[in-house]
Amino acid sequence: MNHVFVDFENVHEVDPAVIGAKSVSLTLLLGARQTRLNATLVERLLENAATVQLVRLTSSGKNALDFALAYYMGRAAMADPTGCFHIVSKDTGFEPLIEHLQSRHIRAQRHDDFSTLTFSGPAKPHAAAPEELMARVLEHLRRNATSRPKRKKTLVSHLLAFAGKTATEADVLSLIESLANAGHVTIGDKDAVTYHD
Predict the structure, then answer these.
(1) Which residues 6+ apart lie within 8 Å of 4 measured at CB?
(2) What kind of architecture, by CATH, is found in domain 130-195?
(3) pTM (predicted TM-score)
(4) What does the pLDDT look like over 113-152, one tens digit per residue?
(5) Beta strand 2-7 with 84-88: parallel, antiparallel or unpaired?
């Protein structure tokens, strides 16, 4: 998910294409002195209320909106650590926050305006190395000796679920072949699985 936080005190134009865009959550932050919004913008915001959050500060002060933006961005990062976070503001004072988030492996950027805003897909989860996955699978199968799958087809489904979203059926079939070659399993008649440990 892409999370866009707009410093509306600093950037007064919102790209209408971003409002309601797929996989985009928009938070518009207004200062206490900002009492008027363009009617067309309000209509677009209302049409996409499920993905838009309007935050209006009730009191003003030095950097008040900046602190509020950092708070909402932090909450979003806790809820969606693999998301992409964008601040739309000309205020370079956000750079230390961006650098800190990046040092914590959170994808964050600041944009002077909407023209440089680009969206990327979700971060790819770390795929386990084949040896690492094989060691984890062997440990898992040994720990659950009484409930191990008895047929190859069931073993494939079982290991797909165990390996998680990063593994494909081809990966699992290759893993089973490696287990067989290493003498940990034998695939017999009617794809019956025999475990050797």
Answers:
(1) 18, 24, 25, 26, 27, 86, 88, 117
(2) Orthogonal Bundle (1.10)
(3) 0.57
(4) 888 887 765 444 445 556 777 888 888 888 888 889 999 9
(5) parallel
